[in-house]
Amino acid sequence: MTFDFNGKRAIVCGGSRGIGRAIALGFARAGAAVSICARGAVTLEQTRNEIDAFGNIAHAGCCDLADPAAIGRYITEAAAAIGGCCDSSAAGVSGLRPAPASRYGVRSRTRRESRHSRSQP
């Protein structure tokens, strides 16, 4: 199956490695202008060069997705670089720590409670 993203714009968070990289390269192969972000500048630049090799607009920006201000800066830069608001987005991120349950008003189970609840039918 082939996809046609000619004239489309894509943003891929976590786009420098793993699944995110594969998604970004897939968008580029299908003709999209692609912006990627991640925390590591070296792998970002390597992947940006691979995207650029498809002849499309390629943008990369360092961004820590745990920092809302950094996300706002990245999205502004990405939109300017790829020609406007994105048509598609994807996240291939990893390593984000989940928020504690207490943040949502939920009491976390103790290890003993969790083990006991698994044995119940």
Q: Mind explaining what this structure looks like?
A:
With 121 residues, the protein is an alpha/beta fold. The protein has a single domain (9-95), classed as Rossmann fold (3-Layer(aba) Sandwich), CATH 3.40.50.720. The chain is 39% helix and 17% strand. It is built from four helices and four strands. The chain has helices at residues 18-29, 41-52, 68-82, 111-118, and strands spanning 9-13, 33-38, 58-62, 88-91. Strands 3-2-1-4 form a four-stranded parallel beta sheet, sandwiched between helices. The protein is globular.
| Sheet with the most strands: spatial strand order | 3-2-1-4
Number of domains: 1
CATH class assignment? Alpha Beta
User: Mind telling me the C-alpha Rg?
Assistant: 19 Å
Globular, elongated, flat, extended or rod-shaped: what is the shape?
Answer: globular
Write a concise keyword list for the protein shown above.
four-stranded parallel β-sheet, 121 residues, globular, Rossmann fold, single chain, disordered C terminus, 4 strands, alpha/beta, 4 helices
Structure summary:
The protein has 121 residues and is α/β, with parallel strands linked by helices.
Draw up the topology in text.
Layout: E1 9-13, H1 18-29, E2 33-38, H2 41-52, E3 58-62, H3 68-82, E4 88-91, H4 111-118
Parallel strand pairs: 1-2, 1-4, 2-3
Helix pairs in contact: 1-2
